[in-house]
Amino acid sequence: MISTKGRYALRVMIDIAEQNTNNYVALKDIAKRQDISKKYLETIVKKLVDANLLVGTSGKNGGYKLVKSASKYNLYEILKLTERTLSPVACVDSKSAKCKRKKMCKTYPMWYELNNLISKYLKKKKLNEFL
Amino acid sequence: MISTKGRYALRVMIDIAEQNTNNYVALKDIAKRQDISKKYLETIVKKLVDANLLVGTSGKNGGYKLVKSASKYNLYEILKLTERTLSPVACVDSKSAKCKRKKMCKTYPMWYELNNLISKYLKKKKLNEFL
DNA sequence: TAATTACCTACCAAGTCAATAGGTAATAGG
DNA sequence: CCTATTACCTATTGACTTGGTAGGTAATTA
C-alpha cells in the first residue's frame, strides 16, 4: 500500500504546479491549502528536493518550485521516493532478499506481470494530467 | 504489498491442485514440498477453510482439498483473505477511514483507476493457470 | 485405542508508519 | 545591518502490522 507520504508528496507536487507561477511556493501555504501538518510535510518535501524533483530556497519569498514542466514528471519517480518499495510483492522487489525458489516458482511470472502492470501505469501518468 | 501469508496461501492452493487427486492432502506434505513452516501454514490455511475455499478433515489420511475445480478460483478471492487490504491506497479502501477531501481530491480518480486495474487483473487470473 | 491429523489460543520480537519536537542555517526586505 | 521569514536538520515517540513460534485440544481412521 502506498503510504500517506506518497499521497501527500503527489498532492504537494500538484499544488505547486497549480500555482502556475515561477515564484517559490511556501510550504506554509501548501500545508494550509492541502490541510496537512507543515511539520510532516517538511520530511516529505526534503525527499523531493534531495532527488532534484523540486528546488527550494530559504528566506522571505522562499519556498519550493518545480525544476521542469509538469508534463515531464511521472508518478513513478515521485512515489518511489517516499515508498520503501512500489512492488506488489517482495519476490519482484530489488530491495528485498532474493527468493531461492524464484527459478522454479510457479507464481513468480504472475507477480512479475502484475508488477509491470502497476509500474507502467505509474510511469505513464504525468503530473500535468492532474491540473 | 502482498504479505508472505498471501503468497503462501496461493502456493498452498496450487500445491493442492497439483496433486490432482480427490484425496485429502496433508499439510505436513505441503509444508515439506513448499519449504514453509507447517506451523505458520496452519494459520494461513485456516483462513482458506473459514472462507470455504478449502475443506479439511482430521485424522489419518486427513488434510485439505479443493471444493471446486481449479479454474473456478481466482486470485482475488484467495488473496483478500490474508491481506488487510488489496487496495493500493487507503483512499480507495473500504476498510480505511473515509477521507473528507475525496470529492474535491484531484488524485482520487487516479487511485481509483489504479485500484481497478489491479483488482481486475487478480480476478481474471485463475488457479488452473498455474498448473 | 493409538497414531495421525486438523484445529485452537496465546504470545513475541522486529520493523514500519504517521506524526511531533525543538532546534539551526540561509535569504530577502526594510 | 537587522529582523522576519523560510527552508533545512536531528531525534524521538506511540501505535500498529508482520512473520513466526509455542503448546496444547479435538476429531478421525486403521
Task: Walk me through the topology.
The structure is a homodimer of 131-residue chains.
Chain A: H1 4-19, H2 27-34, H3 38-50, E1 54-57, E2 63-66, H4 75-82, H5 108-124
Antiparallel strand pairs in A: 1-2
Helix pairs in contact in A: 1-2, 1-3, 1-4
The first copy, chain A, binds a DNA duplex (30 and 30 nucleotides) through residues 3-5, 24, 26-28, 37, 39-40, 42-43, 45-46, 49, 56-64, 84.
Descriptive overview:
Two copies of one chain form a homodimer. Chain A has five helices and two strands. Chain A has a two-stranded antiparallel ribbon with strand order 1-2. Chain A has helices at residues 4-19, 27-34, 38-50, 75-82, 108-124; strands at residues 54-57, 63-66. Chain A has 131 residues and is mostly helical. Chain A has one domain: Winged helix-like DNA-binding domain superfamily/Winged helix DNA-binding domain (Arc Repressor Mutant, subunit A), CATH 1.10.10.10. The A-B interface holds A 1-2, 4, 6-7, 10-11, 14, 35, 75, 85, 87-91, 93, 101, 106-107, 110-111, 113-114, 117-118, 121-122, 125, 129-130 and B 1-2, 4, 6-7, 10-11, 14, 35, 75, 85, 87-91, 93, 101, 106-107, 110-111, 114, 117-118, 121-122, 125, 129-130. The first copy, chain A, binds a DNA duplex (30 and 30 nucleotides) through residues 3-5, 24, 26-28, 37, 39-40, 42-43, 45-46, 49, 56-64, 84.
